[in-house]
Design brief:
Structural class: alpha+beta
Strand content: 25-35%
Distance between the termini: 68 Å
Helix content: 25-40%
Largest sheet: 6 strands, antiparallel
Number of helices: 7
Number of strands: 10
Order of helices and strands: EEEEHHEEEEHHEEHHH
Radius of gyration: 18 Å
Length: 234
């Protein structure tokens, strides 16, 4: 019931995930992203820990295929899962379990991977892949991902609904939090609504606001150091 794309912009190393479904609040569980590390999309009978632990393991070993193998070993319900990931070098790895429902599958290569389940057919993934690969390379990664998501929707998307009712887009920046984290939790035309939100996010005021966030100083991450106070001089 979900289709997604994970990708890397080779020109700046940023990662992105775009996803749509006929379910609810897809942005809260499917996309996982970390600057300088990679991205994961976990779907079908979604297990968010595949995204959370996937990023942790990508940070430790930095190889998408190896991380996928270790995640499959640890998840006893792997046959019901679908997930795909990308590492910091743009290598991709995918898994579609045999119990993900018809039609389910994936396509992947360097810097880009698409996957979906309960689709009208493979044509959805083909449309997404072609749309991304042939999009203007001067476009920002977010626009290229949205172009691909729109192509998947136009090709039929989720076979159980006329249109997706939830969609999300995440793009990494240089900070520990995403540069963009846009979501449509429920709307009868979720992909179109997400595109409208993306366009608004490109307004000058919105970009200036993100620039201010990127300049924030990282805080101490340990309790001891964070609460350490200077000693008084007697």
């Amino acid at each position: 019931m979900t289709f997604s794309i994970v990708a890397r912009d080779g020109s700046n190393g940023r990662f992105g995930v775009a996803v749509a479904t006929c379910h609810l609040a897809v942005g809260s569980t499917v996309p996982h992203i970390r600057s300088g590390v990679g991205a994961v999309a976990t779907q079908a009978h979604t297990n968010p820990y595949l995204g959370i632990c996937g990023l942790e393991r990508l940070e430790q070993c930095a190889d998408a295929n190896r991380v996928l193998e270790t995640l499959l070993v640890d998840d006893q319900h792997r046959d019901r899962r679908q997930f795909h990931l990308i590492d910091h070098q743009g290598r991709t790895a995918c898994w579609t379990g045999p119990d993900c429902g018809e039609w389910a599958g994936h396509r992947h290569g360097q810097d880009c991977s698409v996957a979906g389940n309960f689709l009208v057919g493979e044509s959805v993934l083909l449309a997404m892949d072609v749309a991304f690969q042939t999009s203007d390379p001067s476009w920002k990664l977010g626009r290229r991902l949205m172009h691909a998501l729109q192509a998947g929707e136009a090709a039929g998307g989720d076979r159980r609904a006329v249109s997706s009712t939830s969609a999300a887009l995440q793009i990494s920046g240089d900070a520990a939090f995403p540069l963009l984290d846009l979501r449509v939790d429920y709307n009868d035309q979720a992909v179109g609504e997400l595109m409208a939100i993306y366009e608004r996010s490109q307004d000058l005021w919105a970009q200036q606001w993100r620039d201010e966030l990127s300049e924030l100083r990282t805080l101490n991450r340990t309790v001891q150091r964070a609460y350490e106070r200077p000693r008084s001089v007697s």
